[in-house]
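Late entry, evening session. Most of the bench is empty. Finally got around to the prediction I had been postponing all week. Sequence below, unchanged from the version circulated by S.P.
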Amino acid sequence: MTKEKSKKEKYITVFEVSGSALAILYALLIASNTGNEILGFTLLLVSAGLFAAWAIIDKRWAFLLLQFFYAASAIIGLVRWG
């Protein structure tokens, strides 16, 4: 494995794992109905950004398109609850 590919794989892993963890926290906060909607939708927005970075690095264009939907949903949630 080349040094460049190894670096790419490390970025992908960081974006994948952190994006997934934030998405899980987002879902738990929204489902808990505890008044943490702003934090939840902020986590969704950050998660979508991390997943978008992963999609760009890995050239996953359909997945990138999905992240635009999630980011838009997060922005709508922030506006609605903000």
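Two things to note before I forget:
The chain has one domain: 3-81.
The radius of gyration is 14 Å.
Will write this up properly tomorrow.
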